[in-house]
Amino acid sequence: NFAQARFSPRPSRDHWKAIRRFVYSANVEYIENNQGRLEFREQEGLFTIEMVNGDGFTVDYTNDYEFIPRAFDISTSPIVVVPVGGYTYNNLLTSYTLGTRRMMSGTVSYQTGQLYGGTKQSVGLSSGRLEISSQLAFEPGVSFNVVSLPGGDFTTSVVTERTTYTLNPRMFVSALTQYASASHLFSINARFRWEYRPMSELFVVYSDGRDTVGTGYPALLNRAFIVKINRMFRF
Q1: Burial label, 22 (beta-carbon count in 10 A; 0-12, 13-18, 19+)
Q2: What is the mean pLDDT of each successive set of 10 residues along the chain, which is 235 residues long?
Q3: Hey, is 12 helix, strand or coil?
Q4: What is the CA radius of gyration of the chain?
Q5: Is-contact 143 124, C-beta < 8 A?
Q6: How does 145-173 read in b/e, with b if 16+ C-beta sit within 10 Å?
Q7: What is the C-alpha separation between 102 and 61, in angstroms, rounded?
Q8: Cα separation of 128 and 123, whole Å?
């Protein structure tokens, strides 16, 4: 079950020239399993200020309940186990979004609250984009989490960066690199796309995943080289 209410007034430009609109939103989500047991419940209140220049500021508060039917390892280094049970936690997220009109865009966020009987704090950059020119763009992303649970404390981080170079409107090259501290995995995915005729494309993809645990050059876990071509036939 899900219900939502939203109010989005647009203020007078005579008094709020820099603001396009305010957004007030509240929603409730309620999920049960087939036996009628509550699996997940969320109550959320959100307030957003949308600027005329495309920027935005958001405050998001959530009150969640989650039932964990099976214990699982939330961290492997160190090993931290989340036991079976029901967990209630509150979280407050604040974020600021730089609009796409800027040379550098993206959303910077900070979150603090509870998680599985403990606490969690997170900072991050998502949907980042640095447009050097009409052809070259960088898309960085960072997520850093500090978690303290009854079973132990740990930190996790994920760092990503995508580079895209557009040769012409029908051809581009992009490369995504990512490091995840929880899995100790460093990966690369590079792709070439060419639309050699309308609705017909050639893809060349290379991917590489490596384990960063240990000394020396990261050990290879997987590697793939893929070529795909499709052709549109019109009748």
Answers
A1: middle
A2: 96 86 97 91 97 95 95 87 93 95 93 95 94 93 95 93 95 96 91 94 96 80 95 89
A3: coil
A4: 23
A5: yes
A6: bebbbebeebebebbbebbbebeeeeebe
A7: 28
A8: 14
